[in-house]
Amino acid sequence: MTYQIYLGDYSYSSWSLRGWLLLHRWNLPYHVTFVDFSDGSVAAQVANVVPARTVPTLVTPEGTVVWDSLAMAEELASRHPDVGIWPADPAARATARSLAAEMHSGFGALRNACPMNLRAAYADYAPSAEVLADISRIEAIWSLARARHGGQGPWLCGSYSAADAFFAPVAMRIAGYGLPVSAQAQAYVEAHLNDPALRRWRAMGLVRGDDLPQYARGYARKPWPGPAPLMAEATEDSTAENATCPYSHDPVAHFLKLDGRIFGFCNAFCRDKTAADPAAWPAFMALLGNK
C-alpha cells in the first residue's frame, strides 16, 4: 500500500516540499515521480493524472488523485490518525490547522518577491514594505502558537506537525534572503535548517534538476546558512568498504570518498545526494560509524 507523489524541482518547488514532508516526516510509504520544470509545463507532464495540473499531486494506493497540499494533509491525517500529522490536543490541533490554512492562502508579497531557491542565499536583499508586513504577520502567528502550544521543543504546536511542514519553505525564504526576524522566529528558522528531513530534501535538490534562472535573483550571494556539510566527493576509486548500497541494498557501482574512506552506492543519484550532505542520511552515517 504505497502512495505515489508527483514532485517538482526540489530546489524551487515550495509546495512540493510541503507534500513530500507530509509523507517523509511520518514514514508513510511512497514512490516519487519527478516532474522536471525544464521539461515543459507541469500540467502537460501530469496530464495522465486527471484532474491534476500542478505539483505536488498525491495518488492514493487505490488510485484516488489528491491535487492540493492542504487536502493532502487532511487526507493523510484521516488515513493515518495515529502518526501525528496534526497535534492530538484539540486546541493545538485547531491552531495548527489555522496556521497551515493561512500559509496555504496568504503571504503573496513574500512568495512573489522571494521565490524559494535552496541553491542560493543572498547577502543584500532589501525587503519591501509589503514583504515586511507579511513577515510581521508570520512572526505574530508563530509567536502565538509557540506561546500557547510550543512546549519545550522547537516546533509551533508541540511535536512537528503539518503546520511546520507548511511553514518549512517560509523558513527557507527567511534564511535564504536574510529577512529580519526576532530571535524567537530565527530559532524556529534554525530548527528547519537543522531538520534532517529538510536537509535530505535540499541535498537531493542540489544534485537533481537544472539551475533555473527564473528563480535566481541578482543580489550578492553568501554561503547557505544551514549546517556546513562534511566534505565528500565522487571518486573513480572502487575499493569501497561496503558491497551494497546503504539505501537500496543493491550492489554498488558508484563511489564516494570521505575522510580517505571509499563508500559505494547503487547509482549516481544515491552517491551524489550523499556527497551533498552526508550527515543528513542516517543509513550512510551508520555505515560511516561502523569502523
From TrEMBL:
A Pfam family for this UniProt protein?
Answer: GST_N_2
Using the record for this protein, list the coiled-coil segments as residue ranges, or answer none: none
State if rRNA processing is listed as a keyword.
no
Q: Which residues form the GST N-terminal domain?
A: 3-84
**Cross-referenced SUPFAM superfamilies:** GST C-terminal domain-like (SSF47616), Thioredoxin-like (SSF52833)
Q: Per its UniProt entry, which superkingdom is the organism in?
A: Bacteria
One biological process term in Gene Ontology: glutathione metabolic process
UniProt keyword list: Transferase
> A single Gene Ontology molecular function, please?
glutathione transferase activity
Name of the protein in its database record:
Glutathione S-transferase
Native species of this protein?
Puniceibacterium sediminis
**Organism placement in taxonomy:** Bacteria, Pseudomonadati, Pseudomonadota, Alphaproteobacteria, Rhodobacterales
